[in-house]
Amino acid sequence: MPRPMNDRWCLVVPVKRLADAKTRLLGDARGHRRDLALAFALDTVSVALACPSVEAVVVVIDEADAARLLGAAGAVVVADEPGAGLNPALVHGAAAASRAHPGCGVGALSGDLPALRVDALAWALARAPADRACFVPDADGAGTTALLARRPGDFVPAYGVGSAAAHLAAGAVALTDTELESLRQDVDTAADLERALSMGVGPHTAEVARRFTTAGCR
């Protein structure tokens, strides 16, 4: 496998409108889903920015208050264009990243990784091949939490139902190392949230979770 020419990355994090986010959260977490969705994104972005090989994090979002907070955290915020769904939004964000940081690899990172660790993200970035894209399947193996391409032309997101299989069929390499556990734990359901909390989450998610933990709701 060819040796990578550089190890600098721009990561694109899509963030859905908070009113529409995390609708599969049930039970005690449901009443906090808007706050949890924002907290997940803030914790994910903070870890990504702390990764030594990450040059920039581009957040694609169309919600002013959340955009302001994510921008204050250090992300570059761009509007969701052309407003045609997740994959076009990721392509738009990656194009903006490549214009601002030519020569960097580009990647998509799910915005709901509150247990993400810097070392897990660094591990994935370091192992991305030079000649094709790679992806990290989610904990269930069907979805995708990260899609990475050292050459921007190899960045072809295929998110949606069965995205892991779609990325694999497109020629991307799957990264499933045990070191990637925190990068694979996205949160869509209450069970996902329980697993993330047991792994340890970032401060924003921990603060929101404390609200219903303190009230005896968990």
Walkthrough of the structure:
The protein has one domain (9-212): Spore Coat Polysaccharide Biosynthesis Protein SpsA, Chain A. The chain is 39% helix and 15% strand. It has helices at 33-50, 64-72, 86-100, 118-126, 163-169, 181-184, 190-199, 203-214, and strands at 9-14, 54-60, 76-78, 105-109, 134-137, 144-149, 173-174. Strands 3-2-1-4-6-5-7 form a seven-stranded mixed β-sheet, with helices on both faces. Strand 5 and strand 6 form a beta hairpin. The radius of gyration is 16 Å and the shape is globular. The termini are far apart.
Q: What keyword list fits this structure?
A:
15% strand, alpha/beta, disordered N terminus, Spore Coat Polysaccharide Biosynthesis Protein SpsA, Chain A, globular, 8 helices
Reconstruct the topology from this structure:
Layout: E1 9-14, H1 33-50, E2 54-60, H2 64-72, E3 76-78, H3 86-100, E4 105-109, H4 118-126, E5 134-137, E6 144-149, H5 163-169, E7 173-174, H6 181-184, H7 190-199, H8 203-214
Parallel strand pairs: 1-2, 1-4, 2-3, 5-7
Antiparallel strand pairs: 4-6, 5-6
